[in-house]
């Protein structure tokens, strides 16, 4: 990505995750630039002329299960958009797994997975840093709406949800996210299992070695003991 730097050769997404610094103190400076490019590109691709309306059936099933209804999801999304203090983003994501893919702490409880979640993030933060798969993003930085809507953020977000969002795109992202989550879970489970087996084998080998040393120690003590007359 940036020639001669530690980010060279990474895709935009890889660079964003690597420079996030696992949520410790501050992300590395390239994070904000990489994430804002990623976020804006994703945001533009979430819309189409004549969008909005009801989501397609498969997506709607997930929405009904996780938010009660389409209206319930819209209410929760609007609430997140209006309560994000200052600049940031609002997201609909798929939280595919409770397994620890990334070290950054997710704001959504770990047992709450295999479902859609809504989150709001400050500045450039993207739910990918918590291992969530973004499905829809709306920019709530002031520059996104002030020229058209002044301070009426709610009208801007409503206009996107009612007239612009491409639910077909969101549905196709969900299908990919679900498939990817199954694949990643399988891969990670195998890695965790391999690590556990290795740790177990190392533990057994250390125990054998300690037992051997213990026996040698006993023999040396026995040899050095003075012979009683
Ligand atoms: Fe923006």
TrEMBL record:
<dbReference type="GO" id="GO:0046872">
    <property type="term" value="F:metal ion binding"/>
</dbReference>
<comment type="similarity">
    <text>Belongs to the iron/manganese superoxide dismutase family.</text>
</comment>
<dbReference type="Pfam" id="PF02777">
    <property type="entry name" value="Sod_Fe_C"/>
</dbReference>
<dbReference type="GO" id="GO:0005737">
    <property type="term" value="C:cytoplasm"/>
</dbReference>
<feature type="domain" description="Manganese/iron superoxide dismutase C-terminal">
    <location>
        <begin position="57"/>
        <end position="173"/>
    </location>
</feature>
<dbReference type="GO" id="GO:0004784">
    <property type="term" value="F:superoxide dismutase activity"/>
</dbReference>
<protein>
    <recommendedName>
        <fullName>superoxide dismutase</fullName>
        <ecNumber>1.15.1.1</ecNumber>
    </recommendedName>
</protein>
<feature type="compositionally biased region" description="Basic and acidic residues">
    <location>
        <begin position="215"/>
        <end position="229"/>
    </location>
</feature>
<dbReference type="InterPro" id="IPR019833">
    <property type="entry name" value="Mn/Fe_SOD_BS"/>
</dbReference>
<dbReference type="InterPro" id="IPR019832">
    <property type="entry name" value="Mn/Fe_SOD_C"/>
</dbReference>
<dbReference type="InterPro" id="IPR036324">
    <property type="entry name" value="Mn/Fe_SOD_N_sf"/>
</dbReference>
<feature type="region of interest" description="Disordered">
    <location>
        <begin position="199"/>
        <end position="229"/>
    </location>
</feature>
<keyword id="KW-0560">Oxidoreductase</keyword>
<keyword id="KW-0479">Metal-binding</keyword>
<dbReference type="InterPro" id="IPR036314">
    <property type="entry name" value="SOD_C_sf"/>
</dbReference>
<dbReference type="InterPro" id="IPR001189">
    <property type="entry name" value="Mn/Fe_SOD"/>
</dbReference>
